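Figure 2 data, in text form.
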Amino acid sequence: MEIDDNLTPKDLAGLNETLKYWEQRLVEDRKRLEGSDSIELSSEIKRIKWNINDIKERISHYDKNRVANKVFLIDIDGTVCDDIKNEDSHLYATAKVLPGAKEMLNKWYYEGNTITFFTAREEKDRKVTEFWLKVNGFQYHTLVMDKPRIKDGQEYCWIDNRKVRAVTYLGDWTELKEVDAKIQTFG
């Protein structure tokens, strides 16, 4: 199998859609095969499995060779869904996605950026959080739990030896834009 090193994020999105199609076909054909000894259907299932493995290999190759432009650290509660406090963690599974959040984050993901959810949700809530992200169609690379919680009036201050850009979510998922702003530096 020849793998194209020049796949674009749009190509990757197409591969993911094709993968979903073949996985669905596999489920349907397996159901049809139950109670049947059809050799033709059995060979069709083998062909579908080959297609699935081929696509997964192409996606894996793409993921290993792409260089992310940006590494996004994105909060969950109050940023991509309803603002739910840890004390109300029983509501995580039913949180509503904020308009435009999934579309913008998935766009960044398919453009080759790294998406990391960085949340104050506790480690005990990892499974429900991963399930919620999957059910709601978010594409991402990593989920980091137990971000330090802050109180109203406090702010996060990130000090790093690498370039850092802070973006405060103000209630509208649109394209990012450059603005002049005052920043604090050492010295």
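Caption note: The helical segments are 9-33, 39-65, 101-110, 126-135.
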